[in-house]
Amino acid sequence: MNKIEELYNNLGKIEDLPAFPAIAFEVIKLTRDPDTTSRNLEDVIKKDPNLVSQILKMANSSLYGLSREITSLNHAINLLGFVQVENIVMISVILSSVRKLPLHKKFNRDKFLEHSFGCGVTAKIISNILNLNFSSAEFSGGVIHDIGKVLLDLYAPECLDLILENAYNKGISFIESEMELYGVNHSMLGAKLLSIWGLPEEIIDIAENHHSPLNAHNKLLVSAVHVADLLTYSEGIGFGGNYAKFTLEEDDGWQFLIQEANLKEEFDLAYFTFKLYEEIDNAKQLYFEES
């Protein structure tokens, strides 16, 4: 048994395994409960000053163009809506948690976060353009899809170095390099971690199948994140160790999206690129302003 297999098999027994913040998990459960009120969310969120700050910052951003300042958390929650509140909480806890971890010196934390965040935003853009309704799962799942790489960096940094070196030397993807060397990959590790955390099944589905969307339970949702992952790489947003070349038009996930969304053949892929940069720039002002 190699070290990555050992890590996967014993993941639940690791004493210092990162924990998903309880407050974020509670917010996710509340936002998906039809009986939840804004007061219920306020009671939970106000326990974390950082989340309160992020939500008020979003509510007072130029995206909403209000003439007066929003100072009430409850008002901000009602203005933004539960979906956007969940998005803010998810990205805030991921950014905060990853930055606090003692990551390996060869693991570029900022580039990893930039890629993860870019994938979430791009998945949201795809969802909006294609009029798909995923109730924010595409954003949350996009942000967290590569969390298994953090586990590699924490518990098997020497293996991570070999995976990256092999991928670079052979011009292959990170996951191809993992499977070639160890037979276990970051998608498997990430899905197991999210299961231990007790996150929603749709988020686990994204982590487990974002490289093989046609194997997913929700093929459309995971295909959107899969394509977002590819577009984020192609536009140079962050870095996750992928050196493989690809043609989007020939990708199975992209073809599935086209089929399910009834896209025309003359669909303008350049529009995705335009919206990608526009929305990334807007979002960075909100989420990375103080990073």
TrEMBL record:
It comes from the Bacteria. It holds the Pfam family HDOD. Residues 17-213 form the HDOD domain. InterPro entries: HDIG_dom, HDOD, RNase_Y/CdgJ. This is Putative signal transduction protein. It comes from Hippea maritima (strain ATCC 700847 / DSM 10411 / MH2). The lineage of its organism: Bacteria, Pseudomonadati, Campylobacterota, Desulfurellia, Desulfurellales.
